[in-house]
Write a structure and sequence with these properties.
Elements (H helix, E strand, L loop, with lengths): L15 H23 L4 H10 L3 H4 L6 H4 L7 H22 L1 H23 L16 H14 L4 E3 L6 E3 H18 L5 H22 L4 H36 L7 H4 L28
Antiparallel strand pairs: 1-2
Helix pairs in contact: 1-5, 5-6, 5-7, 6-7, 6-9, 7-8, 7-9, 8-9
């Protein structure tokens, strides 16, 4: 992961994953806006909103897709614009650092992590929350991006939009965390607002877990390494099993009694080069080299 100490005031690029997320969030918002505009009763729109947003009671009853779909829904245009602005400003740099696949893995890891924290907290009754309260918005993933940017580009300067002041990213992230904690505690009587702030904190927590514990190449690399390790262990077991069978056979048919296991196999069960067991042949031997 590349770290930088300075950052220009120019706008970040529209990288591939960021562009796709921006379009997806914008399209979903437009679809729900059209549903409300052309359906005065808003029956279908409210039904879709309820089943795509995040509610702890619905998740535990099987609607696990809500752990992701809630991040594409937003309450209003300002909610959408601020989240998408942060996604673009901070996410683009992280995608440049990590690449397309790793960036998306990190983003949705934070989204799902924030959702899980929200669901768990909703059943505890803490801060006056309820498992039936609906939570929407990409803030869990956005807060994860903010923490990652602050940790990897802590000395970069960011502007406190809309104020024309520059501040180092690490201090900006500390301020964001403080505001999320303060918001969760101060809105304890609000229920739904408390859940929203818990989603923010969940995104921060899971972003920290990723940066500290997840392999730098992501889940795909970790899974492939684990798969190759299991495969290699299986092959080693097969070789040792074959070596034991061969040893039983040789002991039964060894009339001279000079069979030694280490002459034929190494400690991993691999067959040793036969030339190491046989007398050297005369010059001109055209045997190909031994391949195990």
């Amino acid at each position: 992961m590349r770290r930088t100490t300075s950052m220009g005031l120019s706008f970040p690029p529209f990288t591939r994953a960021v562009k796709q997320l921006l379009i997806a969030n914008g399209v979903v918002f437009l679809v729900f806006w059209l549903l409300r505009a052309f359906d005065p009763t808003a029956v279908f729109g409210d039904w879709a909103y309820f089943h795509l947003g995040l509610a702890g009671s619905a998740v535990v009853h099987g609607e696990i897709w809500q752990l992701i779909t809630y991040s594409f829904l937003h309450y209003g245009i300002l909610h959408l614009l601020f989240n998408m602005l942060a996604l673009w400003m901070f996410g683009a740099q992280l995608e440049v650092d990590w690449g397309y696949n790793l960036f998306l893995q990190f983003y949705f890891f934070c989204v799902i992590g924030a959702a899980l924290v929200t669901v768990v907290v909703s059943f505890t009754g803490l801060l006056g929350v309820s498992p039936h309260t609906l939570t929407v918005g990409a803030s869990g993933g956005i807060y994860g991006l903010l923490l990652a940017f602050g940790m990897l580009h802590g000395d970069s300067e960011v502007m406190l939009f809309p104020l024309p002041f520059l501040i180092k990213a690490k201090y900006f992230v500390i301020g964001i965390i403080f505001l999320a904690l303060y918001g969760a505690l101060s809105s304890a009587r609000g229920g739904g607002q408390s859940i929203a702030y818990m989603a923010h904190l969940g995104g921060l927590v899971f972003a920290y877990i990723w940066l500290k514990l997840i392999p730098r190449r992501g889940f795909g690399y970790a899974a492939s390494e684990r798969a190759f390790g299991i495969r290699n262990s299986y092959y080693r077991w097969k070789r040792k099993r074959a070596a034991r069978k061969f040893e039983v056979y040789m002991r039964k048919h060894d009339d001279r009694g000079d069979y030694k296991h280490e002459d034929y196999f190494d400690e991993l069960g691999n067959i040793r080069d036969p030339s190491a067991r046989e007398p050297r042949k005369k010059n001109g031997d055209n045997r190909p080299p031994w391949v195990n």
